[in-house]
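Lesson 9: reading folded outputs for more than one chain in a single document. The general rule is that every protein is listed as its sequence immediately followed by its structure tokens, and records are never interleaved. Here is the first one.
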Amino acid sequence: MQAWQVHENGEPSEVMRLAEVERPTPGDGQVLLRVRAANINFPDALLCRGQYQVRPPLPFTPGVEICGETEDGRRVIANPALPHGGFAEYALADFRALLPAPESLDDAQAAALHIGYQTGWFGLHRRARLEAGETLLVHAAAGGVGSAAVQLGKAAGATVIGVVGGPDKAAVARELGCDVVVDRRAEDVVAAVKEATGGRGVDVVYDPVGGEAYTQSAKLVAFEGRIVVVGFAGGTIPSPALNHALVKNYSILGLHWGLYNTKNPALVQHCHEQLTALAERGAIRPLVSERVPLDGAAAAVQRVADGVTTGRVAVVLEKGAGA
């Protein structure tokens, strides 16, 4: 089979190599899946760089989120078991963790429903307890993680403010349903959000960026607000001033979605049921901005790493699956 492999750490476009390899053999509790579509996540770039919290042995195949097909023809969503990731014709996955792909979504959309939307659901509902009528601020609102949070926020009845970088991403954020869009490259984020909220600030902040975005979040969070720390795509891990959290009376909530797979897997299944119901009624739909063939995976992962994409980029293997 064909599979992208990383033999040394570095930038995705430099270290990912397409090769002919043997199909992986399932271990105990694992299943072999034919990959129909693989969604590209920022962690795929971190894996290539050797900067992710999980460091599979070299060589490995990246690709942490797929829509695959079982031997009996069932379409499923899975997180491949590294080092046999999803940028390949076949991947391995934990049989117990397989989730049914919603019929309302094509393969590329189904592949993109899992990590970003599960993270959004857990962040907004489990951690922040977002309520209808509250105001939600989403950093990187046009990206893969942010776009999911925007849709989930709107589905929950919140007013959503999206922060983006550039006019093209601003247009995408508006299409996603943001009530207010702030272009950080052209506007003062703090001033714009304060104006939009009448000086009150926001109830919940969803931050997958870190760095300066977190600094802005602390200035904008309202009384009894909640800042959900999802990741550090900006490259800088902030050091929160806890005295500031005390004085302003807000909460800082960490979210590592992957822990739920071991700590409370039943909740992951419950979340998928909620997401499937939302997808079936059209309240959420993954924004797949690009569908590329398997041989275009390395270049696509690099574009995601460089932050120049919007929504999700999917590698589509099944002919016509992304149509």
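And here is the second record, again sequence then tokens.
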Amino acid sequence: MHRRRILQLMASAPLAFGASRLYAAPAAAGNKLLVVFMRGAYDAASLLVPASSDFYYESRPSIAIARPGGGADAALPLADGWALHPALADSLMPFYQKRQLAFVPFAGTDDISRSHFETQNSIELGQGAARAKGGDFRSGFLNRLAATLAGGGTQSAAFTSEVPQIFRGDERVPNIDLGGASRKSRLSDEDNRAIASMYRHTDLDASVAEGQRIMGAAREELEAEMQAANGNAVSAGKLEQEARRIGRFMSDRYNLGFVDVGGWDTHVGQGAATGMLANRLGQLGRALAAYADAMGPAWKQATVVVISEFGRTFRENGNKGTDHGHGTVYWVLGGNVQGGRIAGRQVKVAQNTLFQDRDYPVLNEYRALFAGLFSRLYGLDKARLAQIFPGIAPLDLKLV
């Protein structure tokens, strides 16, 4: 066989194996994958609204998003009885209409600890809840993917303040700090002294002092939990500012990236069509739209997967918020995404389908979902997928 013909056959082969590495084909190497982690467990039932479910509206008297057609604050109709939060009307809805955005409800992990730290760690390790709790902290699943693709032109980066667990391992992955997380403002000690002085020598003096003490302790406890939930992730507002810079990095230099964004732990006053959660969803939506714009022609080979450690309780709590849950909704966005649909296994949203009578169940396990995506993006066979997610059969949702 002529040498030219041999080279042609080698170039057309989807995968080529070295002694211990997988070498991706040039087409696969051109793909751009960014994973976005919403740390703090966002309320997926406010993002992807089960608008056809009466149970949803019975369970959320204060925070439900109105059915489509209900005015300016109503959800935007999608498919199969689902609807989108109106805060994403201008940013992400156009991608859905162009079939570049899909949602995967009832997604998540087998970890049911409802602990931010444990579940985030478990997901990033990609080895299942039982293995993570057993103390195997050697590598994250994106690091194992990078190792599997090494030699095929894949360059990886974490757009975080430090290398996250998902990218730790044998492959050396740089981190690019976006400036750290912003902190919420709070009353200063001087403010508290001024308030106390207003009631000094009155019948309310002791009550105000005790109230300030209790409120301070409660605020510190809540802030400590939110800080733990967020890790060192940037805020949604900060990510909105930095998204174009990430897009340029990914377009010019990197093709496997990770960024996390905090502020999703909404136990109190999360709001509905407007309010705290709506503001953050709006910021994240605009950040993703800006990222797509900054990618330029590279957007045609781009995929963005947005995940969170778990969902939130389906019913609202007494503080007009939601507590730690289980199943959530993943977003898959990109120029090569087969979108305009709600993907994956689903069940009717009703009381009898809730997990432990409180949360969305997990029907689309995240490792299987990512394995199916990696198989399509990079042409990985079962043996190579097993190096990334041991013991997991890929779930092919035909997302790309």
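What the second record shows: The two ends are 36 Å apart (CA to CA).
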